[in-house]
Amino acid sequence: MSAQAVWPESGIVLAPLAGGPSTPELVAAVSNAGGLGFLGAGYLRAEALAEQIARTHALTDAPFGVNVFVLEERRVDGDALAAYAEELRPEAEALGVRLGEPRFEDDELDAKLAVVLDAGVAVVATTCALPQPALFRRLRDRGTAVWPTVTSVAEARAAAAAGADALVVQGAEAGGHRGTWDDSEDDTPLLTLLADIARAVDVPLVAAGGIADAENVAAAFTAGARAAQAGTAFLLAPEAGTSAPHRRALAAGGDTAVTRAFTGRRARGLVNAFMRMHPDAPSAYPHVHHVTAPLRAAARAGGDAERINLWAGTRHALAEPRPAAEIVARLRP
């Protein structure tokens, strides 16, 4: 399946928003409004993903996609990881929970791909690493388009050479986890990155990062994008599963920064007490994610916005509590 076969009429793509905000209702609403919705498969069990895909199919006949994490096990500093867990222990005890055990796991990638293929999903987007050639073949042989996320010209060239149908170009302004394949510093602004990648590869580009209004979308198109992906702009939509403390924090506003404190991988969110208190988390994903998961769950259940990840892009102040269809319409240039 070509990129054009699933290209949204509006040019607007919903970012996957894994970890809670992603819901079938949000995905279907965006696709029904002429956009391309994406379910965030990250952190879900394969069975739960199958249920969400079925629910989305029940809500829309329009194409939609699924985003999966492609995780590669890398060497981590065990001593730094243990020291970080010890640093967090008092906070967990204050919330009455035990920290999780650090470990690597691949987020059930094979099982999730089997679900996606069985369900006939139109497009699969990937993040965190380049899929192996066998994964590309497995998807494309079944007519599923593959859109890797890239954050540099080198990544874009590698993904294009592997046979990507389109590239999701993520600039530094994006909220949530950085898409870089090696958790490195990747602070190139979106428009600069888009222009550089557009000159380097002949593959359709989807702009991601700081897309919050029609002006941002128009600028991305001018820089070489064929579509624009927005995530933070949809976090306050009634169809989104954004938690109550996250919604309140977005409404209150504030600065964003990039941190490894919550998951061990660089991610952009609203600055809160947890980020300020733990500036030196090691690069160890998903190890740190598993360590902090019980702490974050307890804080979220208690409505504590100071100890949960408040993922948000740099233009979060433009997010509004509107229905998803209205947000798609307002984003169109």
CATH superfamily membership, which one? Aldolase class I
Task: Estimate what percentage of residues fall within beta strands.
Answer: 5-15%
Strand arrangement, major sheet: 1-9-8-6-5-4-3-2
Kindly, what is the distance between the CA atoms of the first and last residues, rounded to a whole number of angstroms? Answer: 27 Å
Mean pLDDT, all residues:
96
Q: Which outline best applies?
A: globular
How is the biggest beta sheet arranged? 8 strands, parallel
Based on secondary structure, the structural category is: alpha/beta
How many discrete domains? 1
CATH domain topology? TIM Barrel
Describe the structure in your own words.
The chain is an alpha/beta fold and 333 residues long. The protein has one domain: Aldolase class I (TIM Barrel, Alpha-Beta Barrel), CATH 3.20.20. The protein has helices at residues 24-32, 46-59, 78-94, 109-119, 133-140, 153-162, 190-200, 214-222, 244-252, 273-277, 287-301, 324-331, and strands at residues 12-14, 37-40, 64-69, 123-127, 145-150, 167-170, 176-177, 205-208, 227-230, 256-259, 267-270. The protein has an 8-stranded parallel sheet with strand order 1-9-8-6-5-4-3-2. A 3-stranded antiparallel sheet has the order 7-11-10, with no helix packed on it. α2 runs parallel beside α4 and α3 (78-94) packs parallel to α11 (287-301).
